[in-house]
Design goal:
Elements (H helix, E strand, L loop, with lengths): L4 E7 L4 E4 L6 E10 L4 H5 L8 E9 H10 L5 E14 L5 E14 L3 H5 L34
Parallel strand pairs: 4-6
Antiparallel strand pairs: 1-3, 1-5, 2-3, 3-4, 5-6
């Protein structure tokens, strides 16, 4: 049997480092916003080409938790590799609750903390670069070179 999860997404808030009560083991829980792939089924459901995201609960332990708390923040792009784990607990009202989360075996930072810190709060964090070269307006503007033809 196989229980393997690989996700790429952005942190929904700054990770908060905590420690376990018994063993003082560092742990960080975080939510990863992962864009859902667009398919023609989404149009049938009335989504009109709008991109949707899933918000997935994740947990990292020990050194990984410490490094995440130090080097990532809200909006950081990360990749996680891990497994899905389901656990249960009883809340303060004596109701049994179930939690499913990704337990991270590895976390890879896909952008740097310094690149995020240099942005002003009102400026978009990530901007798409535009090509600055002159593009032909239509096929008639392209020169025909017979040596480039595949036949």
């Amino acid at each position: 049997m196989l229980n393997k999860v690989v996700l790429v997404g952005r942190l929904t808030k700054d990770p908060e480092l905590k420690t376990t009560t018994g063993g003082n083991i560092p742990v960080v829980t975080f939510t990863l916003a992962v864009n859902r792939a667009f398919s023609s089924n989404n149009q049938e459901q009335g989504n009109d080409n709008r991109q949707t995201a899933d918000f997935i609960s994740c947990v990292a332990w020990r050194r990984q938790a410490e490094v995440m708390a130090k080097y990532t923040q809200k909006g950081s792009l990360i990749a996680v590799d891990g497994r899905i784990q389901t656990r249960d607990y009883t809340d303060k009202d004596n109701i049994k609750r179930y939690v499913s989360e990704v337990v991270c075996d590895s976390v890879v930072f896909l952008d740097s903390k310094s690149s995020n810190e240099n942005q002003s709060p009102n400026q978009p964090r990530y901007q798409e670069k535009q090509n600055n070269f002159n593009k032909p307006q239509n096929d008639a503007d392209l020169p025909l070179i017979e040596d480039d033809l595949p036949f």
